[in-house]
Amino acid sequence: MCGIVGYIGQDNALDYLINSLRVLEYRGYDSSGVAIYSPDGHIKIIKAKGKLNNLIELTARNPQKGKIGIGHTRWATQGIPSDINAHPHASSDSEVAIVHNGIINNFHELKEELIKNFKITFASDTDSEVIAHLLGLELKAGFSLKNSMLNIINKIKGSYALAAISKNDPNTIILTCHDAPIVIGIGKEKDLFCASDSAALLQYTDQIIRLKDRQVAELKLNGEYLVFDGKTQKQITPQIQVLNADPVSLDKAGYKHFLLKEINEQPAIIRKLLAHHVKDNLKIEFAELKPELLKDINRILICGCGTAFYAGMIGKLALETLAKIPVEIEFASELLAREILVDEKTLIIAISQSGETADTLLAVKTALKKGAKLLAITNRSDSTLSALAEGGNILIQAGIEVSVAATKSFTAQMLCLYLLAINLAEIHNSLPSEKLNWLKNELRYLPQIMEQTLARSETYREKILPYAQQKAFVFLGRNFNYPIALEGALKFKELTYIQTTGYAAGEMKHGPIATIDETTPTLSILLPGSTYHKTLHNCIEAKTRGAPSLGVIDDLDKSARQELDTVFEVPALPFSEEYKEFQDFFSPFISVLPLQLIAYYLAEHLGKDVDQPRNLAKSVTVE
Ligand code: M6R
Fold first, then answer.
1. Whose CA is nearest to atom 14 of ligand 1?
2. Average pLDDT score, the chain
3. What percent of the chain is predicted at pLDDT more than 70?
4. Is residue 352 lining ligand 1, measured as CB closer than 6 Å?
5. Are residues 217 and 142 part of one domain?
6. Which residue, 208, 242, 276, sits at the end of a domain?
7. Angle formed by the axes of helices 587-605 and 457-464, to 10°?
8. Residues recognised as catalytic
9. Which helix (H) or strand (E) holds 259?
10. Is the dihedral of CA 563, 569, 570, 573 positive or negative?
11. For residues 106 and 85, what is the distance between their CA atoms, to the nearest angstrom?
12. Distance of alpha carbon 553 from its chain centroid, rounded?
């Protein structure tokens, strides 16, 4: 979604702003803009609808010199994507320019008041513009830029990360935030940066300060940075954090798209996570977790959105199978719609790649207020979620995920949940140690089998392309592969824009089968396990009604192969008669791979914007 960047230092601000905005492109946006404090004493604003290249062309035609600037990528919420609605926005007297992420809930009231009492004319349809006018009025009343910001945060309600520059206070960038992230980057040459996503700063510094809710920061041209508490207005000493993200994640490494690179990174990430958490004596360690976190709990509530939610669905199965603790799972947005029933014996597991998803953060905050314990599974140690879960973080260590469609974060989240399930089973003595040791040993085969599966990419591509003209797909699975059917369908629809629905295969006869005919190819996940035969029946029922039948099967399959029109074969997982109950336990790590790949290849073939699908944002920071 929207992104903020800023630079103040001795170099040309514009170059830094454009480079940083380039990094934030991955988050999804529909317009962009910059405001530069120019040596002639004016603030120059340049903005453009569409891709960042449009802005770059404009700035190349009209290059702006200046040491201080702020920039923005906008993902439209209030007001259509357009040049005018793009940020930065200025006050009527062009005294101040602001960039804003989030939503101002009381903007209608504020706008009415500004029009009625101050005869202000609005240039855009955005909620954000009220902030520029409010600041403009404070400055006119004689307040400094910092005090103006401290004053207006008592008037605006909603979520915001804000950066502002003013002619009135030309050597300063002012920042603040509430329920939306913003960080300060401390450069080496007394230059300072800011960004709503620290990925934008990786190229310049690894020293950051995360602003807390309603803090106000003043970044000065001489390299000084001051942080104030918004309530007491007193200066505070902020904590400097070292960024540990790998800048290599921001490189395509020779792949055509970030998505393909990230799909192929999965075996290495799983290998790294296993090495980190499973010690040579097969002991599982979560060194980052407070020991008391996993003790004395009688219930687990998992929440997340989108792909993170589907990883959670599989986590629920793993946790209940092994740790025998009742697990509920709910979309974060749905949790917010009702009373969240938790207490101090409830462990809430929040799953979020970005750690900045608004729904997830709000659900977590509500559960925390009611005394629940929090465990966060995230990819970003510098995120709001990670900060909320101090002593309760499991980092998925997947490296920055650039492609909007989540892939590597999904398998990494699943693995963390499996390891947690085994660890909880050990703590609660819910399964004999031989079984748990067998499972831990089996996990070690996963990276290799995942590699062997990915090596078949080209075959998967050839097999899916004949379906390029289909208008709708149905994906089916049961048990551990039901969430994979949902996740596979999500990848398929967000990348190809083809209507794709995932169902629990057993539900087909209860309604969805009415939609099935020769125009609805049905893809079933048919890996060995207790539900294989039932799923195969459902697949045949669809086939009988004319649906082209596709399936993910393993190399040893005999039955499904004969029934299906197209098979995506994966290597067979090791099987033990003694531990037959776990036969489909690990299959999601493998079955999801051909589904990610067919979505990618079909989208690419159809000429879709694979890394930044239309209408989507990488991190959904508004409710
Ligand atoms: O950053 P998060 O994991 O909290 O994001 C959750 C969803 O917005 C995300 O998984 C989304 O569904 C992806 N586009 C899926 O590919």
1. 405
2. 94
3. 99
4. yes
5. yes
6. 242
7. 50
8. 2, 618
9. helix 258-264
10. positive
11. 18
12. 30
- Residue 248 pLDDT greater than 70, yes or no: no
Question: In angstroms, what is the span from residue 619 Cα to ligand 1's centroid?
Answer: 7
Residue 406 has pLDDT above 80, yes or no: yes
Does any ligand 1 atom lie closer than 6 A to the CB of residue 308? yes
Same domain for 268 and 238: no
Residue recorded with tokens 């699908």 = 613
**CB 307 near ligand 1, within 6 Å:** yes
Q: Name the residue range of residue 7's domain.
A: 3-242
Average pLDDT of span 258-264: 97
- C-alpha 453/C-alpha 448 separation (Å) is 9
Residue 73, ligand 1, Cβ within 6 A: no
Residue in the block written with tokens 């390029």: 468
For residue 252, pLDDT over 70 is answered with yes
Average pLDDT over residues 327-335: 96
What's the length of the chain? 623
Average pLDDT estimate for 514-521: 94
Q: 72-102: per-residue pLDDT in tens?
A: 999 988 899 999 999 999 999 999 999 999 9
Position 232 scores a pLDDT of: 93
Instruction: Choose which residue among 307, 313, 595 to substitute to test ligand 1 binding: the one with the highest number of ligand atoms within 8 A of its C-beta.
Output: 307
Tell me the CA–centroid distance for residue 261 and ligand 1, in Å.
18
Task: Count CA atoms within 13 Å of residue 80 on its CB side.
Answer: 1
Q: Do residues 105 and 227 both lie within one domain?
A: yes
Domain of residue 336, CATH code: 3.40.50.10490
Q: Residue 568: which residues within 8 A CB-CB, separation 6 or more?
A: 459, 460, 463, 550, 551, 552, 553, 594, 598
